[in-house]
Each structure stands twice: as C-alpha cells, then as structure tokens.
Amino acid sequence: MQAGLVVILAAGVALGNVSVIVNATLSLAVTALPALLERDHGVTLDPVIVVWITVAVLLHSAGMIGLYDRVWWWDHLTHTLSGGLVAIAGYAVTSAIDEHAPDVTLPPAFLWVFVFLFTVAVGVCWELLEMIGRELARAMDVEPILIVYSVEDTMLDLVFNVVGATIVAAMARLSGGRAVLERLGDSLARQ
Fold it and tell me: pLDDT tens digits, residue range 148-185?
C-alpha cells in the first residue's frame, strides 16, 4: 500500500499537481507513524488498525488523482472508513478514561453516545479546516490542497462519517464484533 502511495506521489509530481503531492506525502508520513510510535515510544498498534489507517489514506490519495471526480461513491467510501477510524480512536480514549480515572464511570450507553458525538465533532472540525484552507488558498492566489466541492458535499461527508461510526458501533454490539472492537480499542487504550 505504501508503494501505491509512492506511485500516486510520482503521478502528482509528473502532473505538477500540488494537491496530489501534498496529500500523498502526508499519507506516506501517516503510514510511517505506527512504526515510529513502536520504535520511539514502545506503542504497538493492533495490525488491523494499522491496515485500516493505511487503506484509508491510500484511498484518499487515490481519490485526489481523479477518483473523487470520476467515481461518485469514492468520497463516501473514504469518509466511511475515516469515520470508523475516528470512532475506534474515540472509543479507545473514552475507554481508557473510564478504566483509569477513578472518579469517572461511564455507562455503556453513554460511551456510545460520546463516541458518536466525538466522531461527528471531528468530522465537523475537518470540514471547517477544508473550507478555511480553501479560502486561505484563494486569498493567497494559490491552488487549494484540499478541495471543497459544495455545502451539499460537505453535508454528505458528515453523513458518511456517521455511517462509519455507526458501523463501528454495530460491530461492538454484535457478539463476534464486540471482541474485535474491544481488542482494537484496548490496543489503543493501553498506549
């Protein structure tokens, strides 16, 4: 998958597309984080989370070379994956607080409400950053790195973030999926 990101980066360079170059470079950096965290801080992420992160950034970077424009559902897929990833991270952080803070006790129903709201809040913050970035790029007369298509597209992005969070919550409610999610969340929470 990292080789795929290198190919996308090379395509961005060949096309002279700054958005593709920046996104592919940042995506490669993100894929290196799990190994750096393990080497420098002894933090070991579950392999499923590492693959999930890598797939999400690879698909996002691939979208930047035209798939967002040509494949109507590509943006929905990437936001669903990202929303699920944010939900797992929110679950891990919230579970760690619940487990390690003696004055905090979170009922399971509240935990999932919090994770859902956390995912929505992160999605809103991301969309605001995209819009601010676009306006700053316009003000400086440079090409925006992140593309904002419309308010309707932004709302759909948020909807698919929620779809990702809902899938993660559903996994937690299913008997087999609950163990997988707890393993993923516990691997993050231990760190």
Answer: 888 899 999 999 999 998 887 777 666 444 455 555 55
CA distance 159 to 166: 10
Find all residues with CB under 8 Å of 10, minimum gap 6, and list them: none
Give 36-96 as a DSSP string: HHHHHH-----HHHHHHHHHHHHHHHHIIIIIHHH-TTHHHHHHHHHHHHHHHHHHHHHHH
Query: Token pair of 178, please?
Result: 């609950």
Please indicate, yes or no, whether residues 112 and 26 belong to a single structural domain of this protein. Answer: no
In one-letter notation, the amino acid at residue 34 is P
* pLDDT per residue as tens digits for the range 76-85: 999 999 998 8
Domain match, 98 and 186 both: yes
